[in-house]
């Protein structure tokens, strides 16, 4: 499903190069459930952005579902991303002028799904993320945790083959956080490949496979301890 | 230092009123160290915004350092806020075009402090928040946790009498989070009144006094269990 080979990502700030990703090699099979943990600034979001085709490596290759993404043009990348990947951003990136329901509906609109089906699916996901009473609110009329749940609903409503989530419970209390993780794990049990970047040890340790990053490298890659 | 009397905050969305704060009564003495916890959407950020004079109650009163804030005009409120309060926002609100160092320096510039002293103080706080190598980066060139630390540095650099922090460790790993809390507790030991809104039980339970909110009300107000 995913194969990163010798991936490097270097940012230039003035004269200083920042090695955000340093020779990353990673294979992920379809249906796996991974967590990625590590200190602030270790490269977790950068890695997720490359996996989500929101950024390109400076060198190395990224094969997604067997295709070398570096050989696709922008339009092909956009199509692959839209059809395959759901992304929950660390800072949400909701559309400010749309309501919660409209933000969540957006991927369905882009996929050409008819209004009856869209309405039903949005209503169902508003219910499962406990947002039904906030569907008409715009992002600036929502709490931090409510915005986070809108971002999660939007990313999951199309049941994408690959779900990339960056700190999906960072603004949630333990109980709402567990509800969200339950939703994500349910999708994984249906075959969706799930990657969770998190600072929360309790959440990270639920994953079948747990990666640790430090200074742009993967320094550990372990199976979950037996329950 | 702080006295909230019968404070209500009602948002109107279409025809639906949202009772974000419901008859809040709260007294906080100078130098206290409080945590505020509670489910997503329970009113924590709204309460903090009122305390920070970023929002006004619909009814009730807020006395800060003996002055009724509802009787101050906008200019007086802005002056009181600038001189008294440091605020760490749940979504950071950094200035996009300024570097990390310039963002942190901003309160010192507004206070008319000379450039030599500003440079020294910014350098010291960059060191204590582990941001020295990122001082020239703009917010979009920083990781989520690095932005959070810039927001904390900016809020604390003036040693304000009242420090209001909304989820200050939400984007940080356990170890960076503990470093930040150590900085905040050190300021409190010097007399600064400290209020931390958090979803993290481990962090919330360090406070001398722990409030719990549900549906816009304070439902618990307890002293820390003996260590
Ligand atoms: N656009 C950019 N330009 C320059 N440097 C960048 C840029 N984006 C990220 N960086 C740097 O690359 C490093 C990795 O950033 P990244 O956002 O991947 O970290 P992270 O592991 O997600 O951290 P956090 O846990 O704080 O969210 C950081 O040190 C950051 O300062
Ligand atoms: N500008 C607004 N207009 C309408 N409703 C709002 C507005 N701001 C907040 N709300 C609503 O008021 C309630 C309290 O919001 P608040 O941001 O204080 O919650 P919170 O406790 O900080 O939540 P979280 O833990 O998710 O950050 C929420 O239900 C939210 O939807
Ligand atoms: Mg990150
Ligand atoms: Mg909040």
Overall form of chain A? globular
Helix-strand category of chain A: alpha/beta
Helix content of chain A: 25-40%
Oligomer: homodimer
* Molecules bound to protein: adenosine-5'-triphosphate, magnesium ion
Helix and strand sequence of chain A: EEEHEEHEHHHEHEHEE
Q: Order of strands in the sheet with the most strands of chain A?
A: 6-7-8-3-9-10
Using only CA atoms, what is the Rg of chain A? 17 Å
Biggest interface between protein chains, with counts per chain?
A-B, 33 and 33 residues
State the end-to-end CA separation of chain A. 27 Å
- Chain-averaged pLDDT of chain A: 95
Low-confidence stretches of chain A: none
The total count of strands of chain A amounts to: 10
Largest sheet of chain A: 6 strands, mixed
Report the total helices of chain A: 7
Strand content of chain A: 25-35%
Task: Describe this entry's structure for a reader.
Two copies of one chain form a homodimer. Chain A has 227 residues and is an alpha/beta fold. Chain A has seven helices and ten strands. Chain A has helices spanning 44-51, 74-84, 100-110, 115-128, 144-156, 174-189, 201-204; strands at residues 2-13, 16-28, 33-37, 59-64, 67-68, 85-88, 162-166, 193-197, 209-214, 217-223. In chain A, a hairpin with a 2-residue loop joins strand 1 and strand 2 (16-28). In chain A, helix 3 crosses helix 4 and helix 3 runs parallel beside helix 5. The longest helix of chain A is centred in the C-terminal third of the chain and has 16 residues, at 174-189. The model of chain A has no long low-confidence stretch (mean pLDDT 95). Chains A and B meet through helix 5 and helix 6 of A and helix 5 and helix 6 of B. Bound molecules: adenosine-5'-triphosphate (2 copies) and magnesium ion (2 copies). One adenosine-5'-triphosphate (ATP) sits between chains A (11, 13, 18, 20, 38, 40-46, 90) and B (134, 137, 140-146, 171).
